[in-house]
């Protein structure tokens, strides 16, 4: 842990984990304050997990979350009052320690002079120049004063953001590009299914952000707080301002764990797990190995979600392990989906149904998980009746794999870029924003109807790269995205049903049927997923090599 002393009795740090709480106890800390909202990152434990560990260690734990870049004066006051009442020493944490430091700085306004606050923060490694204006101007920041300006600004350094930056540089070397993202680690999230199935080690899916970003791109290590599209400005944490000529928005989506009552209190214990979190995918595999009998439940929330096949992938790989271990006959497998069908593209359903029958999986459609009682090991679903009414169904479980509902990030949903549902409002073909011509969006946060997968981002990135350069007069024609998405459905260890499709559920195979028939389980498709796609991701897609991803151009 990187613990930084900020003031007498107060230290701040980056995100902590439940396994580190005992170490904090040994170091003498008597209280913990979490300033990071649950659901910000896929590698983030929930506060409930931290609190359980803190209670066990005899440490007070308090939750005072603030959205990144939106620490208010009121939160600063609340932090100060909390600090006065807590036993010392106290550790406050968020994603990086910046929000905690900002809250402290605001709480000290009027108690200490400005140089003292700034110098204390500087010694702890935090630059408070953005907060200086907040304090001096009583929260008012002149957005006309830009701290940085770039030709192209990209929000988000996930698969979509980095691939787009690399595609831009491949077409226009030397282009002035800045990527805004606060994360230190870039994750290959498609690999987490295989981590949960015992095929990959979690560490294989993580690379440092610094080594992943393309050379020549400016990395602004901060979170976005708001947009001012009419002024071509992005507002960062600490009220810093970045101006742009062209803006590309691809921040991913938010896992809404708190939409399911009781889930945050039991996630990561009592047999409740999810491959959608980096630190829990290994727990999935641990639980699958330990289960020798009983009931295993797998859930799927209402759409849209990233990788719509992921809930089933976890189920099939688990069932295959139990079959190979000789215990499948002693395990009841139940699938509860909020949707009405097993998979949205009918061509792939027959092959999947063969495995459903072979594994004796009980399918339950129209069921949305609404409540989890971990200690009692029960899951409660809202079930839709044929007449339009609903009733609750409660099932006991020995293993519960949960896929949470998914929404656009908070700063997107409340922004002028969002549609009525909170997603970024783009033209589905050009991926240009419907209101602002110098803004494009791609990846999970866009409202295009394609599947939210890394494969979709791989196809979208060249489209956005071309269209941004066309808007700048550096390219001719208009690139069109056809809605391509891919979902390698891991039906057993060693075989995959490779679903590939475009807008409207039209099957769009990348390979001839004699090589890989996507509608049938394939050993070659498994080798593609396990051996070829990871290096293709790191060394191809993220490097601007557009293999099988060249965009279609029109004259418009």
UniProtKB/TrEMBL annotation:
Alphabetized Gene3D superfamilies for the sequence: FAD/NAD(P)-binding domain (3.50.50.60), Protein tyrosine phosphatase superfamily (3.90.190.10)
Residue span(s) of domain Rhodanese: 88-144
Biological process (GO), any one: sulfide oxidation, using sulfide:quinone oxidoreductase
Entries under InterPro entries matching the protein: BLH_phosphatase-like, FAD/NAD-bd_sf, FAD/NAD-binding_dom, Prot-tyrosine_phosphatase-like, Rhodanese-like_dom, Sulphide_quinone_reductase
Requisite cofactors: FAD
Lineage: superkingdom: Bacteria
GO molecular-function terms, A-Z: FAD binding; hydrolase activity; quinone binding; sulfide:quinone oxidoreductase activity
Keywords: FAD, Flavoprotein, Oxidoreductase, Quinone, Transit peptide
PROSITE patterns noted in UniProt: RHODANESE_3
The protein, known as: Sulfide:quinone oxidoreductase
Origin species: Pseudomonas extremaustralis
